[in-house]
Amino acid sequence: MSRAEEGLFVVCDGMGGAPAGEVASELAIQAIARRLTGDESGEGSTSSPFLPHTTRLLDAVRQSNEFIYGQAQKDPRQAGMGTTVVSAWIREQIAGVAHVGDSRAYLWHNERLEPLTRDHSLMEAHIEAGLADEGKKLPVEQQNLLVRVLGREPAVEVDVTEVPVQSGDYVLLCSDGLTRMVSEEELAKAIQTFQEPQQICDHLIATANHNGGADNITVVVVEVTGRWWHQLIKGVGSHLRRTLSRPH
Amino acid sequence: MSKLTLQYEGIVLKDYALGSGVTIGRLPDNAMIIDNPAVSGHHARVLLEGQQVILEDLRSTNGTFVNGRPITRHVLQHGDEVLVGKHSIVFDQNAVEPQPVAGAPLESLGDTVYLDTKQHRALRATLESARADAAKSVNARPATPVATAPRRVGVLRVIAGRSEQDQYDLGAHTSLIGRSDTALVRLRGWFKPSVAVAIARSGNSYVATPLGGKTLINDERLEGRRILQDGDMLNVSGLILEFCWKDDVQAESAA
User: Fold this and answer.
1) Is-contact A247 A21, C-beta < 8 A?
2) pLDDT of residue B103
3) How far off is chain B from A145, nearest CA to CA, in Å?
4) What confidence tens digit (pLDDT) does each residue in A26-49 have?
5) Local structure of residue B107 (DSSP, 8 states)
6) What pLDDT score does A228 carry?
7) Chain A contact for B131, CB < 8 A?
């Protein structure tokens, strides 16, 4: 979802073959969008270490978790549904980023690609514990294990960060369908080469396909222009590709 | 019906119905694929002989173990734990039909799977013990740094210019200086930038990023990100601020 005029961008990736995974991602987006519409006053706890808009985003993501969890409890057809989420809200040149799962956010700044998120995956957990090096891969059957998603438990821990964005920066949000198939070097090169958000997206999807991508892919690329009397966000490119589930 | 449950570090990865037999190995033509260098291409197989369930090692490099003992051929008993590389496979003679959702400890959710709370706790315990082991061994790669000392808090002291306070604590993740309502340090005047500078906490340091108007640091133009040092002087559209550490400030005022 993109609400470019407000600087709000959300990518959700329903859990693969889970029942109602697609429903979960749709519900998450709706819940977050609804929460971030309208009255701003009196929201967000004052004790939050983050800026008001980031705090609102965090609250919205937390509440979307409760909402999906509640729906899953009510309807047995949707039991166990889950989704990842990565969201960015850019206001006054500060991007607030909230995420759960393995959908990612990157910042392109000063000719460098910086990850803004760390996957909530078994792989990352191993790396953090010093059990595995980033170069060394876990066995295939464990690479896809997530330790946190939206909607599977009554409450979820949401990772939040804030980063200033300047003219010439890009913010990229994507599902794991992209990052499994396209390396960070290729992401960086695409931004550097094409510069125009839609072209960057198109190129990244084409690269993922070329590399054998079979998963759903969602990419949002936001270009930041920094003059405060101009519109902050110049262009947004996004691409959503749905593939039919593969027969096994 | 019997089943084999593949586990890693106590976490259930997948259940396999025994059917007429299961081949185990690293290569994709096996029924149970364990993509780990410690596992041979065709490592072992499980087959039925009459009423017996037989496990055979296929001359694997690192061997196949049952309940801790190396085997070449073994009649599997209910509850036997087979070790292949670092993966264990538990044999369950009396397994009921795999249940579609709630029954399987780790559902296969297509491409991505999710550890539930219980599995997550088990994982966390494993990881924590690994971390503790790593800390014990001298040559180990340092684990995630543990914050021993409380994080130092930076402050901005107003040296000259109009402001609401004499001093601002940089306790938040991001502190803004500008005309905006959300700014910690509010700049007055219509022509002042909405956000002039963002100061973000990053571990134990503070990084200043200019976002609008003209900002000087120690009389030089602030361009790009910059880690603030104790005593740095910021000139933000005419407001002069000194960056320093809070404990130093308190020590000074106590003296």
Assistant:
1) no
2) 30
3) 5
4) 899 999 988 888 666 554 455 788
5) -
6) 47
7) yes
pLDDT of residue B83: 93
Residue B234: closest CA among B173, B122, B154: B154
Residue of A nearest to B86 (CA): A139
Among A165, A170, A5, CA closest to A94:
A165
pLDDT of A229: 44
Alpha-carbon gap, residue A2 to B134, rounded angstroms: 44
B73, B57 in Cβ contact below 8 A? Answer: yes
Helix/strand/coil for B141: coil
Predicted-assembly ipTM surpassing the 0.90 threshold: no
Q: In 3-state terms, what secondary structure has residue B4?
A: strand
- B143 has pLDDT over 90: no
Q: Which of A123, A142, A180, A230 is the best mutation test for B, with the most CBs of B within 10 A?
A: A142
- DSSP string covering chain A: -EEGGGTEEEEEEE-TTSTTHHHHHHHHHHHHHHHTSS--TT-S-TT-SS-HHHHHHHHHHHHHHHHHHHHHHH-GGGTT--EEEEEEEEETTEEEEEEESS-EEEEEETTEEEE-----BHHHHHHHTTSS-TTSPPPHHHHTEES--BTSSSS---EEEEEE--TT-EEEEE-HHHHTTS-HHHHHHHHHHH-SHHHHHHHHHHHHHHTT--S-EEEEEEEE---TTS-SEEEEEEEEE--PPPP-
Is the pLDDT reported for residue A205 higher than 60?
Answer: yes
Best of A45, A54, A131 to substitute, by most chain B Cβ atoms within 10 angstroms, is: A131
Whole-number Å distance between alpha carbons of A235 and B227: 30
Q: Are B42 and B30 spatial neighbours (Cβ–Cβ below 8 Å)?
A: yes
**Alpha helices, H only, chain B:** 117-136, 246-254
| Locus of tokens 């030089």 | B220
- What DSSP designation does B183 have? -
Q: How far apart are CA A14 and CA B33, in angstroms?
A: 26
Contact A94 B14 (CB under 8 A): no
A122 and B115 within 8 Å at the Cβ level: the answer is: yes
pTM over 0.80: no
Q: How far is A161 from chain B (nearest CA, A)?
A: 8
pLDDT tens-digit readout, A100-112: 999 999 999 989 9
* Residue that has been written with the tokens 């090096």 in this structure: A133
